[in-house]
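Re-run with default settings, no changes from the original entry. Doing this only to confirm the output is reproducible before filing.
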Amino acid sequence: MRIAVYGASGFTGGLALAELRRRGIEAVAVGRDRERLRAAAERAGAPDADLRIAGLEDHAVLTEAFRDCDAVINCAGPFALWGEPVVRAAIAAGCHYVDTTGEQGYLRHVLDTFGADAARAGVTVVPGLADDGGPGDLIAALVAARLDDVDDLLVADLRRPGAVSRGTARSMAAADGAAPLEYRDGDWVPAPAGDTGRTIALPGEPEKVAVAPFALPGVVTVPRHVRARRVRAAIRTEVAALFGSLTSEAVESVPERPDEASRAGARWLMLAEASDPSGRTVRGVVTGTDAYGTTAVIAVEGARRLVADGAPAGTRTPAEAFDPADLLGFLEASGATWRVETA
């Protein structure tokens, strides 16, 4: 098995290289700069990794870089600016594709645009395999399965503010101009601003958590496999305010790589809560530490499963491509825990 990592010289790409090395999977590091790729491969403990130089402007060269690979993991964001050429090249090369985007608009574009091309090529495209979009989509599927009729489904990212990479800051700044969506009565519409300030009771918190609407991946992915009248998303209000205050100058001052202590001490938490028309409510929670490490694990495992086990060709959400409980169970080895319960 040979898996390419595009954007391998970046922070998340380097973690994906290290995870491939740990799993004993042959890695191909693809990017624009050979010296940066070489340094990233050495940091990942894979100094013998195959290094291939390809930019985004030459489709033929990028396709050739992927040609003898089984799958591509795209870690180069902001994806709205740089993601589409990688998807096109992966499909043209006959490779399965996953990425680590959390950008709501880009996710919707990929899922809507590339399904027919991927199906004709016999490959599967699964965007959003990161610590928010992956676990959020998977736990939402398990929560919804407990109800016969889903009236309302909330996906919430309830992690506290913490260290982020420069790549994450760039993606959030790029997405900040787009109004967050919600899914309502069969269509995606702007989320109502009046939802800001609502609160959620969270196990382990002494008080309810204040949240605000936010452009999370689940609003785009969940309606593709859950029949619900409404699907919406939220994050903690203090995190929403932090991302909303990012300027281009502030983004470039963010360290490229958060230090390991900050990563290890930061806990991520994705919640899904669904109710039926009678008011019966089911809640699911997935949580763990080191969000960036988790992103590398889920992206690599997703790519590996596409190659080894297969999935329906076309564009798929994480819960459509993989068994939700099985993949969440796999993440337990990396310290994640999850549960689904009737509220």
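DSSP finds 16 helices and 16 strands in the chain. The chain has a mean pLDDT of 91.
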